[in-house]
């Protein structure tokens, strides 16, 4: 039996090792045995690779000598002898992804993909995690509801929780009567339509296809499910994230109650009778003036929650962890400065600053009210407004339409900007680091060598023992001391000017690392719009369905443009302030150098 197959649907390859298919195209199969829902074969253009088994209908073609009655040929390029359709298994892209070599690999576990916290309660930290957090009561471990939590926190959320909507909550749903589409269910569970039947029903059954790469940011963020109309949930008034039209385009609605938060007094604490040590940071928000103490692992937990909840917002990265030397004074000081920058960006963001979990982090005194702290922690980990449901919380300007071509142009321009900024930030960071190293070691050493040489000359002149030369000898020795002091000034100066610049660059490199994923979500939404428009032009989709996809894409576009606007706003603010500080410190430094030289110069006036 020669193994062949006919394509039931169009398929566009998106990963190395895949091949594209055209509807009604004939393919040669390497084997009829599918691998995790994928078949390997050769298309009519001679390309060999993988494609979804549910996209094709397998045809058994008797070869010469097989015998059997001849039957009329149903397709022009199928030899007489008939064929036997074989239902194909539905693809399972969530458990399979083609490798560049063309061979499949097994889906990694959540722990392999996301670390120890993947798929469950986040536990990443640079020290122990089980002393303050009630890890025995995590979301994954509890089969039922948590009696400690407010009942309204999960009403209507999840798979079937809650009855009606509580006061102040709105049922939002993007579900349409779109089917899952051929990529997700074309051959699963039902009859595989013959090609002629598929063509006749295309007007009512065509859908926007799903992304086969289930590990892409567009899929993991819930953006795909939202755009395809599969998100449904209750949104409280307080959870709405408003985008407004400003003078420069979409922007986040300002925080009506702005605040700041200081981080100071890092202190070393102990527990278990001194067997365990950790550093505690004192936080004082200006809107409460009530100090709370947090450890680095608390910051780490908060960052994980925020990064999971806000797929189109750039959550600033925390200062890097360090396995050794965590209690050294220099490291503690450097980490505190990094956390100050982090907190400044968090409090400055109109959305992040008002987020419930961030406010809980800033205001709940965990040391005095452990129950309230743990309840807030569980509530954050059970948040229903994540993934596809997060996009339901976005409120965009009424009756405001976006030109998708203009949006795409702006996104592409910002993508080029971030690439250029990232390259220049790396270069500046390298240059500043190298210059600081020279100041601390090389410049200090060279200036002290000059100073030592001047003192050597002074000591030589002292052998003259002439009374009129004493003043000169002392002046030259003072000049040598001045150069020693200048060398010390060079060694101390980077902490005043270059280090703050490098701290700022490190923070922005974290932001720049976030934006490719944010842009990917928006680009994925635009792709679905283009695909739906093509279906409408071909008469395979109703215009109303395509309009719904475009409306939801507009929601993502509004949020993305608002986030880009905020990034540029804080970038101008931060770099203006930091460059002013840098130049002011440089002026102060050279004034100190000038003062030392002038003092040495005046010593010669009395010679």
Automatic annotation (TrEMBL):
Compositional bias (Acidic residues) spans?
124-135
PROSITE patterns in the record: PX (PS50195), SH3 (PS50002)
Q: Where is the PX domain?
A: 259-369
Q: Name one Pfam family in it.
A: BAR_3_WASP_bdg
Q: One GO biological process from the UniProt record?
A: positive regulation of autophagosome assembly
Record's subcellular location:
Cytoplasmic vesicle membrane
| InterPro entries, per the entry | AH/BAR_dom_sf, PX_dom, PX_dom_sf, SH3-like_dom_sf, SH3_domain, SNX18_SH3, Snx9_fam, Sorting_nexin_WASP-bd-dom
Which intervals carry biased composition (Gly residues)? 154-165
Which cellular component terms (GO) are annotated to the entry? Answer: clathrin-coated vesicle; cytoplasmic side of plasma membrane; extracellular exosome; recycling endosome membrane
Superkingdom field:
Eukaryota
What CDD domains does the entry give? BAR_SNX18, SH3_SNX18
Q: What molecular function terms (GO) are annotated for this protein? A: phosphatidylinositol-4,5-bisphosphate binding
Residue ranges occupied by any SH3 domain in the UniProt entry: 1-61
Q: Which UniProt keywords apply?
A: Cell cycle, Cell division, Cytoplasmic vesicle, Endocytosis, Membrane, Mitosis, Protein transport, SH3 domain, Transport
Q: Where does a 1,2-diacyl-sn-glycero-3-phospho-(1D-myo-inositol-4,5-bisphosphate) bind?
A: 295, 297, 335
Q: Where is this region: Disordered?
A: 87-165, 181-200
The entry sums up its family as follows:
Belongs to the sorting nexin family.
What is the name of the protein in this document? Sorting nexin
């Amino acid at each position: 039996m020669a193994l062949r197959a006919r394509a039931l649907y169009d398929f566009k390859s998106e990963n190395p090792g895949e091949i594209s298919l055209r509807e009604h195209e004939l393919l040669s199969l390497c084997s009829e045995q599918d691998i995790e829902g994928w078949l390997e074969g050769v298309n009519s253009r001679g390309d060999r690779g993988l494609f979804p088994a549910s996209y094709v209908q397998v045809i058994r073609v008797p070869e010469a000598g097989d015998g059997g009655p001849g039957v009329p040929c149903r397709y022009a390029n199928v030899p007489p002898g008939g064929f036997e359709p074989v239902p194909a298994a539905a693809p399972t892209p969530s458990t399979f992804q083609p490798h560049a070599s063309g061979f499949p690999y097994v889906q990694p576990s959540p722990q392999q993909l996301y670390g120890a916290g993947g798929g469950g309660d986040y536990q990443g930290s640079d020290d122990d995690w089980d002393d303050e957090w009630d890890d025995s009561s995590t979301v994954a471990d509890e089969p039922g509801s948590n009696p400690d939590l407010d009942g309204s926190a999960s009403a209507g959320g999840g798979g079937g929780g809650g009855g009606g909507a509580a006061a102040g909550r709105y049922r939002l749903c993007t579900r349409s009567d779109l089917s899952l589409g051929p990529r997700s269910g074309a051959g699963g569970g039902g009859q595989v339509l013959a090609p002629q039947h598929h063509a006749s029903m295309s007007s009512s059954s065509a859908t926007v296809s799903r992304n086969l790469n289930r590990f892409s940011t567009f899929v993991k963020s819930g953006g795909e499910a939202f755009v395809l109309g599969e998100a449904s949930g209750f949104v409280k008034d307080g959870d709405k994230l408003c985008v407004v039209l400003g003078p420069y385009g979409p922007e986040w609605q300002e925080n009506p109650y702005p605040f700041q938060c200081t981080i100071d007094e890092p202190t070393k604490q102990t527990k278990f009778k001194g067997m365990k040590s950790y550093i505690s940071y004192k936080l004082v928000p200006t809107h409460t003036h009530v100090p709370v103490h947090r450890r680095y692992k608390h910051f780490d937990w908060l960052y994980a929650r925020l990064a999971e909840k806000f797929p189109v917002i750039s959550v600033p990265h925390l200062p890097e962890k360090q396995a050794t030397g965590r209690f050294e004074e220099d490291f503690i000081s450097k980490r505190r400065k990094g956390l100050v920058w982090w907190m400044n960006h968090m409090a400055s963001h109109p959305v992040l600053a008002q987020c419930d979990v961030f406010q809980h982090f800033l205001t709940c005194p965990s040391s005095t009210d452990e129950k309230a702290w743990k309840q807030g922690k569980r509530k954050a980990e059970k948040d229903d407004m994540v993934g596809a449901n997060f996009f339901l919380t976005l409120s965009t300007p009424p009756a405001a339409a976006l030109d998708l071509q203009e949006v795409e142009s702006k996104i592409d321009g910002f993508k080029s900007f971030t690439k250029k900024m990232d390259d220049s930030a790396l270069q500046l960071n390298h240059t500043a680091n190298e210059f600081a190293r020279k100041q601390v070691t090389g410049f200090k050493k060279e200036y002290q060598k000059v100073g030592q040489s001047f003192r050597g000359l002074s000591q030589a002149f002292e052998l003259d023992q002439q009374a009129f030369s004493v003043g000169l000898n002392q002046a030259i020795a003072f000049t040598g001391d001045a150069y020693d002091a200048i060398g010390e000034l060079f060694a101390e100066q980077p902490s005043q000017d270059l280090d703050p610049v490098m701290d700022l660059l490190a923070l922005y490199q974290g932001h720049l690392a976030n934006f490719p994923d944010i842009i990917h979500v928006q680009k994925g939404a635009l792709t679905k719009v283009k695909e739906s428009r093509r279906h409408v032009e071909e008469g395979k989709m109703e215009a109303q369905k395509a309009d719904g996809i475009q409306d939801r894409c507009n929601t993502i576009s509004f949020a993305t443009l608002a986030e880009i606007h905020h990034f540029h706003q804080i970038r101008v603010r931060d770099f203006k302030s930091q460059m002013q500080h840098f130049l002011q410190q440089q002026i102060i430094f050279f004034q100190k150098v000038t003062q030392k030289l002038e003092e040495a110069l005046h010593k010669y006036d009395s010679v």
